[in-house]
Amino acid sequence: MKSLSSILFFIISIYTYGQPKTYLSNTKRDSIDSKVLGITKSYQVFLPESYNYTSTTTYPVVYLIDGDYNFYYQTGIIESLSNIAEKIPELIVVGISDNGNEEYKKNCTPKTNKNPDGNSENFIKYIEEELKPKIEKQYKVSPFQILVGHSLGGLFATHVFLDNPTLFSAYIVIDPSYWWSDYEIITKANNLLKNSKEINSHFFVTVASTKQMGVFGFVDVLDKYYPNTKYWDFKRYENENHGSVGLVSVRDGLLKIFENFQLSKEQFYQLETANQVIDHFKKQSKKYNTEVRIPPMQLSKIIYYYFRKDKFDELKILEEGIATNFSSSTDDYYAALAKYLIQVEKLKEAQVLLEKSITSNPNAFKSYEALSKLYFIKKEYEKAMQLGRQSVQIAKQLKVRQWQINELVSNVKKIALKK
Predict the structure, then answer these.
(1) Fewer CB within 10 Å, N or C, the chain?
(2) What positions belong to coiled-coil segments (predicted)?
(3) Is residue 15 over pLDDT 70?
(4) Residue 185 and residue 300 in one domain
C-alpha cells in the first residue's frame, strides 16, 4: 500500500492531467484573404463531440451570419440539442465574422440607387466561392448545409434563398429586417416565387414582438404560392423581443429541420427487429447526406432493452449494422453492452467484447474505461490503472468534452486509492 501522501500526489497529478490546456479546444478561428471582398475575413469553427472519433464520418454544417455576435449561444443550443437532448444530429458550425457594424450592414444589403454601398451580391459570392470551398476542403462536412441569419443577417439569408436557393439545404431566418428599403424584399419575393413550382430548400422564418418588420407580408407571399408545402415554416414569438428571439428560433428551426431524426421510445417499441433500428438511422444518413452517429444514450437504452429481454440475436444485428454503417458509434455500442454484462457479472463475455472493440478501434476510449473497471472488479489494480490512464490520454487526443474527461479521471482516482 502506498503512503497517503504519495496517493494524494498521484491523484492531483491525474486530475491536472485531465484538464484542458486550451479554452474550448473544439473551437477554432481562421481567416481568408478574400479576393472577392478585398479584405481579410475571419471565421470561427465549432466541431462536434465525435469529430475525431473516425476519419469517415461527415457532419452537416451550420453557417452563421454575424458569427462572432451569435456564435456562442447558438453553438450552445446546438450542443444541447445534439449531445444532451439527442434530438438532432451532431453539426459543425461556422461563424462568419464581421469587420465592424458598418461592413455588416453593407454585406447584408444589396446595392441599389438608395444604397450604393450595398454589397450582398459579393458577400454571397464570397461564401459560395471562397468560404464554403475552404471549409469543405479542411473539414469533414456533408453537403447538407444550413444558413442562419438574424435581423439584417436574416434579410441577407432571404436574398440568398431567393437568388440562389440551392446554395444551402435549409435556412433559419430570425426576425429579419424586411422593412429595409421600403419592404422591397417582399416585392422581389412575389416576382421570383410566382414562377417557381416548388421550394427546394427548407425555409424557417420567425418574428418576435417587434413591430413593422415586414415578416407577415413576406409570409403572405409564401402562403399564396406554396400553401401546402412542407418546405417552409413560420413561427411568431409574441413574448420575445428582437434580442431574445434568436435563441428560441434556432432551437425550433433545427428541431423542425431534423424533426424525424430522433427514434423515440414509442417508435422503438413498434419496431419488430434491430434491422429496423439500423434502417431508421440509415434513412437519416441518406436524408441529410451524411453518416450520422446514433445518439449514444438512445443506443444504450436500445441495447439494454434487447439485453434484458435476452434478445442476443437482435444485439448481433445491431452490432453488424453499426460496424457497416455508423463507424462513430462502434465504441458507444461495445462500451454500453459491456457495462450491462459487467452488471450481471459476465466478466469473461464483457472482456472479450471490449478487447475486440479496442483491437478494431484504437480510439475506443469508452471501451478502455470499461475494461479498466472490469479489471478493478477483478482486483487487478495495476492493469486497471494502465487502461484507465489510456482512456484519459485517448480522450484528450480526441478532444472530447471536458465532462467526459472528468468521468474518466474520476475512475483513475478511484483506482489510485486502492493501489
Answers:
(1) N
(2) none
(3) no
(4) no
Contact between residue 26 and residue 47 where contact means Cβ atoms under 8 Å apart: yes
Q: Is it the case that residue 16 has pLDDT exceeding 60?
A: no
Q: Half-sphere exposure (CA, 13 Å, Cβ side) for 40?
A: 3
For residue 56, how many other CB atoms are within 10 A of its CB? Answer: 10
Cα–Cα distance, 412 to 373 (Å, whole number) = 9
pLDDT tens digits along 170-192: 999 999 999 999 999 999 999 99
The one-letter amino acid code at 14 reads: I
pLDDT of residue 62: 98
CB contact set of 105 (below 8 Å; sequence gap of 6+)? 152
Q: CATH number for the domain including 369? A: 1.25.40.10
| pTM more than 0.85 | yes
Angle, helix 347-360 to helix 365-377, in steps of 10 degrees: 150
pLDDT at 9: 52
* Residues 95-100, mean pLDDT to the nearest whole number: 91
* Residue 345, C-alpha cell as written in the block: 457479472
Taking residues 73-84, what's their average pLDDT? Answer: 95
Structural domain total, the chain: 2
Asked if 28 and 112 count as a contact pair (C-beta separation under 8 A), the reply is no
Is residue 271 in some structural domain?
yes
